[in-house]
Amino acid sequence: MSLISALQFLRLNEIPEAWVDAVWDLEFTKRIPLDDTIAGHLSVSGDKDFRTLYQCLLDHAAEQQDGTLQSIWSILGENHVSIKSLVAVLSFFVLAGKAKKASVQQRVSGLHAASLYLLLLGVQGSIAAKVFHEVLLDTCSDLTSHCWPQDSRKKRKKDGPKSSQADGKRSRPQWKDTPEMEVNEADDEEEEEEEDEEELHFSAQDLVKIRDAVVLLVQSLLRLLQTFSLKDRPQSADNCTQIFSKLLHFEPVTGEMTFANPHDVTQLRSVPEMAFCGLQVLCSSKHGDQKESLRRVFHQLLYIILMMNKGDRGKPSLLIPSQAVLSTRDQTIHFVCHLVNELKEIALPVLQILLQHICFQMVEKSDFRSHGAQAVGMLTSQMTSKDYACFIKWLFKFSNSSKMVCRLFSVDVVMVLLEQPERGPQECQDPELSCFLPHKFLIQNLLFARRVDESPSVQGHALACLAQCLELPSFNVTRAVHNLFSATGTQTVLEGEITEGSLSSHQTQKSYQTLLFKTVEITSADSFQCEAKENLAHLLRRIKDSKTHVRKSALQALVGLMKHSVIPLSLENLATLSERCRDPAVSVKKKAMQCVAELLAAKPDSSMVQKAWLQSVVSALVDPENSVRDKALEALDQVLLSHLKPYSASLHLDAGQRLTWDLLGLLCSECRNLSWYFSRAFTIWSKQNKFTEALIGNLISHTEADHAAGAWLLLSKVTASSIRVPHGKILDAWDTMIRSKNVTATTCCHILCVMGDIAEHLNKDTKDRIVADLMSWLKTFTLSLDVICAAVETLYQLGRSKEIKQTQAFLSLHCGELMSVCEAYLAGVLLRERGAQNLNEELMVKHLHTLGVASLHCPAKVSKRTVLLVESVLMIHSDKLAEGQEELPASLSQFKANSLPSRVRAHGVLTLGKLCLQHEELVKKYLPVFARELEVGTEVAVRNNLVVIMCDLSIRYTNRVDNYIPNISACLQDSEAVIRVHTLIMLTNLLQEEFVKWKGSLFFHFMVALVDPVPSVVSLCEYCLVQVLLKDNPEMFSQHFIECIFHFSDYNKHKSYNRFPQSEREKARFSLKGPQHREKRFRIYRFLLEHFTDTQRFNITVKINQTILACFADEELQLDADGAEVLSETFNILSLKEIKLQAMSAPIESTEGEEPEDENMATIVKAVLQVAQKKVVSQVQKKAFIENTVPLIISLKSLLEQKRSPVLRDLMAYLHVTMQDYRNEVKDLFSGDEQLAAELEFDLKTAEKESEISKQVDNCSLTREARIPPAQGSPVRSAALLPFIFATPQPPRPNTLAARLAHTDRRGSRSEQHVQSIALEGTVMHKGAVDARAISTPKGVNMNLTFGEGVSGIFSDQGTSLVSETRVLHLRSKEEQTPGLRQWNVQSPLRQRKKSSKD
After folding, report:
1. I want to staple 480 with a disulfide (CB 3.0 to 4.6 A). Which of 443, 740, 761, 771 is the partner?
2. Which of 356, 477, 485 is nearest to 416 (CA)?
3. What are the C-alpha distances in Å from 1294 to residues 402, 1217, 1248, 1343?
């Protein structure tokens, strides 16, 4: 078909000339309606007509280019076809398809018309034929974004009808349908406009038609760019770049892209491939300066790499990182790498700036940071070593940015770069840059330096990444971390750093045995010992940080260092790890348990690690948090139960089985104190039916192995909840134990426990035989004390029956027999002349212990003679017993010393206490004796046992023991720490079970324990008070706070407080009065206030005003020496920061210097609520201050001035602290006392000026640029490193971090001279310097960078800058003296007033 015939369907000869002129006059910005008849004819134009015309034009253009056919423009002129009308009609279709309500046919026709226009524009001679119009070119090029359905981004109505063609909509590509996490205001306005429009629905066939038309349009645009230069049309080039960038999201691409530039665009399979091809064409020299073209392309690709949607207006919005978004991002990164490989030197400077903008525009979300860091790693792999070193140099400065997200992202980038092969210093010719190439610089100067960051988030992330470094398969990375913490006397250094390329493929394991065979140099590392200790001490401090995530990250770092033997498995480090399993935060507890499990998996043969794991996990079984208990149960199940297999002497145990039996062995020996916690696990497992016959059978098979002790331990826990237990093997083990002398006491106890559990399933003959064995065994008195208790308990289990009388008769017979034997022995020792001199101490203790244990089962057998015999162990009564008197002494004041050893007397006390448990008359008799002995006794073991006895008696005889609680609590100040600890534990249990109440001086005795000289006692006391007692009684601290002030000041003149009775001895022991104890008192006050709620803080302030300040103001309490001390103490307490409301003092979400990058709606709402809450609380607090406090303060000030009291200073100090919140309202608040108001204003102004002066002094001593500390052993010259050519300058800020690093990281300064610090004051550029840039960088403090706005200065290294001659750095020399401080001439308002009155 001829070209003219193909044009017939456009009816160009019928188009009015006036309409054509009007269209051209409006420059194709508005669609002008045609005559209805003509418009009707044009509307019936189909796809076939457009495609036919397109093919004719394409063929003619190709043949015209070859010179075989006449020019298209000549043919159109000869046939009187108006080119102006043709363009106008094509624009009619284009603008119709661009409309929001356009139908499918209008969209397809518009796309075809746009393709025809672009094809015409590419024909040679189009400019002369006046086909080109910039507006129409941009409209046709961007028509895809208007014609492709975008209704998924609209706000759908919930009750809107569903389309029957929904299935068809699912099949369309994902372009512009990517869900966004944030939508800017402009998008909101567009969506509100679209809500009123009728929603259009498209079938699968409709979408296929539109896509085919889109493909044709993109192919036409590619053909145009191959022949039509945009060199002089930068705006059109920008538009094309944006269009191609949008098309990258059009549809998913299957297979791998090659980015090859085909000769025929129809060979490209998908729209994104065409878009990448178009971007590559735009970077060719045909379309202008390639640097400028790359800048333009990289600017658009930046947001795809960042996974952002950059609209025409508003800030970029984040995309949800779906598979489609991630795939497009990966393809874009590979495309950038392809461009860099193709253009090489031209692209490298622009790549530097692209990397900088990726870093600067990164958001705080972890997944975006992770993907961004991976992108940086892939792009840096395309750099030469010199460019890479320049980027690392810039990254170091970037890591000192004032924005928290920048410092956080720098850590992510470092971790990705450490995974890459290390570049050797010899690869960079510039010696100033070569020091940035080793991984050691990244670890020590970028990663490890962040451990002292001002943001807890950055601190935690840096510590977590430090632990990950040790997992990397790099020798030099591992060595760098070792150097930070290694405290060895010498270090081995090879003749050069090991590079990854120097290792063969099979050398992948990290082991120092694989080091290259080179000369070894031994260097002294004494200078590193101190630094290594400092680094480890800092890490241990971070484990106790106030921020939860910092503690978790520090734990991960500590475990990583121990796993890889960087630091030793010392008791201190393991104890720190175990301690965090009892952290107040649940997440930290779980993290600590996970860390100790990792350490156990890495060091399964270390007994110290095994103990730490047991102490961490087993003790967590009683944690108040269910999730922590479940995690501990899961860990025990995996490590202990899951590895239980039948025992065979011919088979070796695997690693898991060995670990299981090692742990069980420790529970039987060194960790027996965990047995009670361990039993809790079996109580829970029994309800879950975990104990099968196979499990019990496996355990019994191990009773014959070397690790039989562990098997008996598990059996003792399991058999109590199991019905079917094979008795035969257990009875055989019993017989073996009775005959053997090599069975340990712990194993004996477990076997006895198992025998007691299966007793009810045994027949009478077997029971009688076992009872006989037990009695004969017990009568030998060769058993340990634990075995005696277990044996008597098993005896009870064997004699227990359904009839209580039968059980009592059995126990009276057998336990009574044991008691008779013990009494006979005691009488023989105590009544025999010189019996105590030849005393067998061990045998005496066992008889006393057996007597006490047996008496608990048969209290009727306890006679008065029995009591006197036990009492005689503690005092001399042998004459009465010899005469046969059985009457108890009428009165007894205290125990009297005799010749018996202290250990015997201590067990005698325990036995006497067991006798008292069953006889109330003995309790009445001996309680005063016990109390007196607590006061005057000198034997530690006796006093300790007396505390245990009296606390046990208080459970059964609560009312009788209640009067002696002050005597027990007085032991909180005992001279021995072990007694203080046991007293604290016992009293806490009694308070928790409510056998004891907070009466008298008990609470204040606990408070004194908070300032105990032994830190472990203080820690235990804090745990008991906060984690145990405060949870049961949240008002406990606030109820006693006022009385604490009077009690610790020893002030008893108040009518209500400090009126409870106290002995003089008790007062002297617990006194904290006087200036020498002031620090202790305020430690107590701070501890109490820290655990107040805001409501309690507010109420306690009001109560202090009413009960203390008001009493002194009304002179109910005299202002004598004691009164002045209490009033001074009160003002100091009111000045504490802990008494301020947290709602007023807590920061609003982000701290200073941390700007949240991704403020979603939830964060904004939370911040608004915090501000509103703070405002309301401030108003309430202000009202209370005006009504309650101000009148009292004015009255007290007048009173103190009259009496010339020194307390006036404390009052003014309190007002100075309080009025910081009301500094602009001083006159209004204190209108009743003008003099006081003037003094306060003067004090506040003076304090403000002093603060400003101190800040100026600090700022003068700090440099504006971060100092780059040289890496350990790296050849960094003693000169400040200048920013390189395309570096983005940092905003000026005082770098307090440099001071911290200078204090903690002196690794380079010990071996080299101090680095001279040069502060960059500014940069001067000549007028044309901006044009030489590849990508513009931001200016000033604002870091929201764009490629086309905010041009700033570019610094350059000497000899490498493209425009070095025109850039001048203004430096402040070291010799310049800082100007002197301004002399303040401040006079008091009162002095001025007095001076004026005199005049």
Report:
1. 443
2. 477
3. 9, 28, 20, 17
Q: Judge residue 1085's burial from the number of C-beta atoms within 10 Å of its C-beta, 0-12 exposed, 13-18 middle, 19 or more buried.
A: buried
Backbone angles phi, psi at 1369, to 5 degrees: -95, 125
Alpha-carbon gap, residue 1249 to 1242, rounded angstroms? 11
Q: What is the CA radius of gyration of the chain?
A: 44
Nearest to 3 by CA among 81, 101, 111: 81
Distance from C-alpha of 1333 to C-alpha of 900, rounded to nearest angstrom:
96
Structure-token match 């100026």, residue found: 1256
The two three-digit tokens of residue 859, written as one number: 């209290």
Q: Which phi and psi (to 5°) does residue 14 adopt?
A: -95, -5
User: What residue type is assigned to position 375 of the chain?
Assistant: A
What separation in angstroms does the CA of 472 have from each of 320, 419, 420, 468? Answer: 30, 7, 10, 7
For tokens 């056919």, name the residue. 69
Phi, psi of 262 (to 5 degrees): -75, 155
Pick left, alpha or beta for residue 259 (phi over 0 → left; psi -120 to 50 → alpha; otherwise beta): left
What is the mean pLDDT for each group of 10 consecutive residues in the chain (1399 residues)?
78 85 88 82 80 84 68 82 88 88 88 88 82 88 85 39 39 46 44 48 86 90 87 88 90 80 79 90 88 90 89 76 90 91 88 92 90 92 90 92 91 92 82 87 89 88 88 84 67 39 38 39 50 86 89 92 89 91 90 93 92 92 89 91 83 86 91 87 86 84 85 87 75 79 84 88 89 90 91 92 89 92 89 70 92 92 89 64 43 56 91 91 90 88 93 92 92 92 95 91 93 93 91 91 91 86 85 90 93 89 89 88 90 89 58 40 58 64 72 84 88 80 62 68 69 64 41 36 34 39 38 34 36 38 37 32 34 38 43 49
Q: 769-794 b/e with 16+ CB inside 10 Å = b?
A: ebbebbbebbeebebbeebbbbbbbb
Phi and psi at residue 1373, to the nearest 5°:
-70, 155
Closest Cα to residue 592, out of 584, 452, 568, 663? 584
Distance of CA 994 to the CA centre of its chain: 38
Q: Residue 378 in contact with residue 332, Cβ under 8 Å? A: no
Q: How far apart are the first and last CA of the chain?
A: 114
CB 1094 within 8 A of CB 1142: yes
Q: Find where tokens 């191990």 sit.
A: 702
Quote the pTM value.
0.72
Q: How far is it, in rounded angstroms, from Cα 339 to Cα 290?
A: 11
Residue 671: what residue type? C
Report helix angle 134-141 to 104-122, nearest 10: 130
Exposure on the CB side of residue 663, measured as CA atoms within 13 A: 32
Alpha helical stretches, state H, 1185-1310: 1190-1203, 1207-1218, 1226-1229, 1234-1260, 1296-1304
Neighbours of 58 (CB within 10 A): 18
Nearest to 407 by CA among 367, 361, 442, 453: 453
Half-sphere exposure of 478 (CA within 13 A, CB side): 20
Q: Which amino acid is at 789?
A: C
User: Which tokens go with 986?
Assistant: 């016992």
Alpha carbon distance 46, 25 (integer Å): 29
Q: Give residue for tokens 């027949």.
A: 763
Contacts 24+ apart (CB under 8 A), 474-478: 474/418, 474/422, 474/439, 474/500, 474/510, 475/503, 475/510, 475/512, 475/515, 476/422, 476/438, 476/439, 476/440, 477/418, 477/439, 477/443, 478/510, 478/564
